[in-house]
Specification:
Chain A: One of its GO terms (biological process) is vesicle-mediated transport. Chain A: It holds the Pfam family Yip1. Chain A: One of its GO terms (molecular function) is small GTPase binding. Chain A: Belongs to the YIP1 family. The complex is a heterodimer of chains A (about 300) and B (about 240). Chain A has two domains: about 70 residues, no CATH class; about 200 residues, no CATH class. In chain A, about 65% of the residues lie in helices and about 0% in strands. The radius of gyration of chain A is 27 Å and the shape is globular. The C terminus of chain A is likely disordered. Chain A is an all-alpha fold and about 300 residues long. With about 240 residues, chain B is an all-alpha fold. Chain B has nine helices and no strands. The chains are: A mainly alpha (about 300), B mainly alpha (about 240). The interface between A and B is large, with 46 and 40 residues.
Chain lengths: ~300, ~240
């Protein structure tokens, strides 16, 4: 059997040697290393204390040892890591934002420190289009009641809506994250959120406005304001309860100022959307005189606001 | 016949034996010569980039491309699970459809009312930017479809909505009224469903199974927005 020697594969020889040396070798999987972190997030509300920070650090260290080097920001795989979610996880996060429980922190419990960009991006896109479309639909319904109103598709509202929503969901978390980083020194116990986690909190908190905007089609004013206030309250509760553990150790004026600014900006967004997208234009402004076309559209807006506020 | 001889494994419990120990003892008898022919079946549809297509008449070239585009249109109109759109992708069809849709959707005159329907550029940019965003989204979620294949499928599946736009424009020539609106609404809803079904038939298999909904939802949103633009078109 001289041919047998020629036919042995040398790689197998090495593999058999290796396996012979370490018969108990086993591969570790990522899921094993994730479960300790899942264990941390089950800890309940009162003990956002030192244990959280210490366990967080050790878990992060364990993860970093097991994981390979994070790909650079110029590679596609880096951005793919932000979309590493399943359908069930996205639905779970949406549910978590709709039902903010004071004890369960959104970032720790729902995000599990794995923020994603899919949710915020598509929730903002949906909200922008739903705003523009339902705003246009109110014009249709208004025309039914009052045939003198001229209907137009108002495509410019899509641009306005998308710019507003995306700027809000992108710039406000940036400012908030910068502020929290700046105040990081004061906080001993709980680390600040990463930028993506802040974006996630804001993005998922905007989800509750989508059904609200659809419900704003009902042409009953007090019902519209009621829905608006309810949605705003739910959304702000989600934001505040997500931010409270981070802000709690800060000085009282700073914490108060931060939380009230957050709620105020959210209120301004809701109010602005309601007033801008859901006011049917009166007849005179549909065909402007030629010289008025040079004016920016914002000058038309306050006059329509005052006129419509006077008539309603 | 080739014979394999293996050393008798006398109980692995007695002494730890390395794995694959018996592999080195397999022998193939040398009595049987191995011979034969290896042929690679020639692909009959190889497009050869040599002088044969350079010398052909322009009509041949154009008809060939038009036939390819027309074949894909038929695949969209009768969506079955097939790979034609994916395998032989091209972007002529999507360009043609987007230009026609944008030409039909733009508002009639520049000096018509300022806050009316979209301009040509707005529709065109919305269509292509939306398609690119959806493609990026499905790539980031881990789909195994290439960028141009995805753009090709999304572009071709606008065909039902373009047909709906044509029908709506014809219906709008008749007098306006609630019946008119209902007919347009029904046509647009039907074509929207057709577009979504056609594109999911092609795109759904490229995603991992637990992320299919995440990849299909933006497609539905995209076609919904286009349907809205088609439905709210009002002639000036």
């Amino acid at each position: 059997m001289a041919a047998a020697d020629e036919l042995t594969f040398h790689e197998f020889q090495e593999a058999t040697d290796l396996l012979a040396e370490t018969p108990d070798a086993s591969t570790t999987s990522r899921s094993d290393q994730l479960t300790p972190q899942g264990h941390v997030s089950v800890d309940l509300g009162d003990s956002y204390g030192a244990e959280d920070e210490v366990e967080e650090e050790s878990d992060k260290a364990a993860l970093l040892q097991g994981e390979q080097q994070q790909p650079g920001f110029w590679t596609f795989a880096y951005y793919q890591s932000f979309f590493d979610v399943d359908t069930s996880q996205v639905l779970d996060r949406i549910k978590g934002s709709l039902l903010p429980w004071p004890g369960h922190n959104f970032v720790r419990h729902r995000l599990r420190n794995r923020p994603d960009l899919y949710g915020p991006f598509w929730i903002c896109a949906t909200l922008a289009f739903v705003l523009a479309i339902t705003g246009n639909l109110t014009l249709v319904l208004a025309q039914r009641r009052d045939p003198t109103i001229h209907y137009s598709p108002q495509f410019h509202k899509v641009t306005v809506a998308s710019v507003t929503i995306y700027c809000y969901a992108g710039l406000v978390p940036l400012a908030l994250w910068g502020f929290l980083q700046w105040r990081k020194g004061i906080r001993e116990r709980m680390g600040p959120y990463t930028f993506l986690e802040t974006v996630c909190v804001y993005g998922y908190s905007l989800f509750v406005f989508i059904p609200t905007v659809i419900l704003w089609l009902i042409p009953v004013p007090w019902l519209q304001w009621l829905f608006g206030v309810l949605a705003l309250a739910l959304s702000s509760t989600g934001l505040v309860s997500a931010l409270w553990p981070v802000v709690r150790e800060d000085t009282r004026p700073a914490a108060g100022a931060l939380l009230s600014t957050v709620v105020l900006l959210h209120t301004l967004l809701a109010l602005g959307c309601k007033l801008y997208f859901f006011q049917p234009l009166p007849v005179e402004h549909v065909v402007p005189p030629p010289h008025a076309m040079d004016l920016p559209p914002t000058t038309l807006l306050p006059s329509t606001l005052s006129r419509s506020l006077a008539t309603t | 016949m080739a014979e394999a001889t293996e050393s008798a494994g006398d109980g692995g419990a007695a002494s730890p034996r390395p794995l694959f120990a018996g592999l080195s003892d397999i022998t193939i008898s040398q009595d049987i010569p191995i011979e034969g022919e290896i042929t690679i079946p020639m692909r009959s549809r190889i497009r050869e980039f040599d002088s044969s297509t350079l010398n052909e008449s322009v009509q041949n070239t154009i008809m060939r491309d038009l036939k390819a585009v027309g074949k894909k249109f038929m695949h969209v109109l009768y969506p079955r699970k097939s790979n034609t759109l994916l395998r032989d992708w091209d972007l002529w069809g999507p360009l043609f459809l987007c230009v026609i849709l944008a030409l039909m959707l733009q508002r009639d005159a520049v000096d018509s009312e300022k806050y009316g329907g979209p301009q040509f550029a707005e529709v065109f940019v919305t269509l292509w930017f939306g398609a690119v965003t959806i493609t990026l989204n499905s790539k980031l979620l881990g789909g195994n479809i290439s960028v141009f294949q995805s753009l090709c499928v999304l572009g071709y599946c606008i065909l039902p909505l373009t047909v709906a736009m044509l029908i709506c424009r014809l219906v709008l020539l008749v007098e306006l009224g609630p019946v008119n609106f209902l007919v347009r609404l029904l046509v647009v809803i039907l074509m929207f469903a057709w577009s979504v079904v056609a594109s999911t038939a092609f795109l759904a298999d490229s995603q991992p199974p637990n992320r299919k909904t995440l990849a299909v939802y933006p497609v539905c949103l995209f076609y919904f927005v286009i349907s809205w633009m088609v439905l709210t078109f009002t002639p000036q």
